[in-house]
Amino acid sequence: MTPHRASRRDTASLAWAPVARSDGYEFDDDLARVDVDAVWAFLSEHVYWGRWRSRADFDRQLAASWRVVACYEQGTGATVGFARAVSDGVGFAYLGDVFVLPAHRGRGLGVRLVEEMVERGPGAGFRWLLHTDDAGGLYERFGFAPASTVMERRHGTERADGEAVPESS
Prior knowledge:
Elements: E1 19-20, E2 25-28, H1 36-46, H2 55-64, E3 67-73, E4 79-87, E5 92-100, H3 109-119, E6 127-129, H4 136-140
Parallel strand pairs: 5-6
Antiparallel strand pairs: 1-2, 2-3, 3-4, 4-5
């Protein structure tokens, strides 16, 4: 089954147009526009949450993403912020790999990335989940809160019965 990558281009209820801001930045959900090498460089060198993965892993994750939203510097077109989501396309989504390059922080771009992904896209009515160790305040603005009812099986953990976790193929 091929994953469905929803974007404004294939969602009839939304008219496609990159969202430009007066401060020199533009937001778009066109995966083809993303500078994947720049995103990988930042994720592989500067974040705490995904260093376990290889470039091939990231490429597979990106290809299977339900939606991406990126922030671009107008004039240069450089990818300066990024967010991706996985979803069932009906009522649940997981937000991940959200970042803004350090030189572009402090301008509200992270807030806008989350807003575009969570509140302005085809998943606006979904139940959203995410993990964060350092940006809870950002996500709380959008209604995210710690949930005591969530259970998680962390990547690469041992099963409770002592059995080894099988290697993925």
